Amino acid sequence: MLHTILQLTLLLVSLSMLGLIYRLIKGPTTPDRVVALDAIGINLIAIIALVSMLLDTFAFLEVILLLGILAFIGTVAFSKFLEKGEIIERDRDH
Amino acid sequence: MKKPKTNDVILQTVTNVVTFIIVLFSLSLFFAGHYTPGGGFIGGLMTSAAIVLMLLAYDLDTVANILPIDYKILTAVGLLIAVATGAGALLFDVPFLTHAYDYFYLPLLGKTSLHTAVLFDTGVYLVVIGVTMTIIQTIGVSE
After folding, report:
1. Per the UniProt record, which residue ranges are transmembrane (chain A) (predicted)?
2. Out of B42, B59, B140, whose CB is closest to A91?
3. Predicted ipTM?
4. CB-CB contact of B45 with B128 (8 Å)
């Protein structure tokens, strides 16, 4: 029973990822694509959690936190590039 | 070109909290590497991710004030630790890179298995941090 529900949920998350990939390709502006990438990362976390439940293992739990951190840092770096034109400043006062 | 003055107070406040969580997670990955997924490589990458987050929220000079580390020297120290761990085996008349472990009774921790592979992993950890941060600091600044 749980197996079927997990597989159904995986299908639904994959569908939502397909919608996000459509936004990633089609998105008229760059911020649209950045938000789509961030949401794809979060969906990937959900998929990893579901797969680790399907495989009945604890081995992937580090990957979940890792992807959360990486998605956050990547999105912050993209936003800073879009806003200021450079990612790492030498001196932020000027 | 004079850019308008921006205020990153939300990003900087979040960074102040999240950096500690990332560093703790990287240390947990590093020390758990023997029995669970993790180890020196991914631990070092996560530590440098925390430093990169600080670089994003602040700037190079501020982070150099917070962490006055020359990352090229850090790489050299890591390599030295790794080679010294391997060469230390030669002192006991066993082949290069032979590791040893034993169980010790430590205060607070109880029965703990201490393994010389952790020292080798420390070398890997330092090299990964040093190389990653050298690359990012070299190509990250647009001049």
Report:
1. 6-25, 34-54, 60-82
2. B59
3. 0.86
4. yes
